[in-house]
Write a structure and sequence with these properties.
Structural class: mainly alpha
CATH class: Mainly Alpha
Oligomer: single chain
Order of helices and strands: HHHHHHHHHHH
Largest sheet: none
CATH topology: Arp2/3 complex 21 kDa subunit ARPC3
Radius of gyration: 18 Å
CATH architecture: Orthogonal Bundle
Number of helices: 11
């Protein structure tokens, strides 16, 4: 399989390098100096579509390894803290994008609506909690909650209009959610020992972990939901074997 488990090491290394370079460069150019509200540190990161596409099109290992290397490069350029990157950024990115590719390959024949829609309830409940318990300011909580509802509604619409995308959407959601959780908990734990860059926070309250989790997920998942499926759809038409498109769909396409 091209870029998969049977790929030549040189080809796999080349794909990982391209993935990492694109991820680092595009991420650096598009984060716009925007960081998480209140607790900072985590930046706006639309570049997630790059390793997600590599992970699904080529292999989970290529997607995960490229993301890990790319985020380390961008972390050094932006906040210059290698320890924080190696303990939080690198493992969270590898986990997220490896999972996205791994799950997408297993759910290429679609996934149940219960899974794809149900997983979106997790951020909705998280947003409801911080809003009801007044854990952060009302405006930020309202924005978080609105985005989580939009993502949930989009997934429900896909269930009716484009069910073949549900596997990609569910895989992206679960993978990104896992990575976001590592970021949230990891940054909170790191802050108990060291000062965080970009904000200078030390001994962050536990609610910060939830805010970092929600910020990471809710600012990145729209790019994976709205942009990744069209990219993969175009790739499936150009390279049907990459995504296991059934022969009858290849003929119709």
């Amino acid at each position: 399989m091209f870029g998969g488990a049977g790929a030549k090491p040189s080809l796999e290394a080349s794909l990982i390098a391209v993935n990492a370079a694109l991820y680092a460069a595009f991420g650096y150019l598009t984060y716009l100096g925007i960081f998480a509200p209140i607790f900072g540190t985590v930046r706006f990161w639309p570049a997630v579509i790059i390793p997600a596409a590599f992970s699904i099109l080529f292999s989970p290992r290529i997607g995960g390894a490229g993301a890990a290397i790319g985020i380390f490069i961008s972390d050094i350029l932006i906040h210059g803290n290698p320890l924080l990157s190696l303990t939080v950024g690198v493992p969270s990115n590898f986990t997220a994008f490896y999972l996205i590719g791994w799950l997408a390959r297993r759910w290429r024949d679609r996934v149940s609506a219960a899974v794809s829609i149900g997983v979106q309830l997790i951020p909705v409940l998280g947003c409801a909690a911080i809003s009801l318990w007044n854990l952060i300011d009302e405006f930020t909580a309202m924005i978080f909650f609105a985005v989580s509802l939009i993502v949930l509604a989009f997934t429900m619409i896909l269930h009716v209009a484009q069910r073949r995308y549900l596997g990609w959407v569910a895989a992206s959601s679960i993978g990104l959610m896992a990575g976001s959780a590592i970021i949230g908990v990891g940054l909170w734990a790191y802050s108990q020992l060291f000062i965080l860059p970009i904000g200078g926070i030390r001994n962050a309250p536990l609610v910060a972990a939830l805010v970092w989790f929600l910020w990471t997920y809710l600012t990145e998942i729209p790019f994976l939901h709205f942009l990744l499926p069209p990219i993969l759809e175009a790739a499936s038409r150009a390279m049907p074997s990459r995504l296991g498109v059934p022969r009858e769909e290849q003929v119709r396409g």
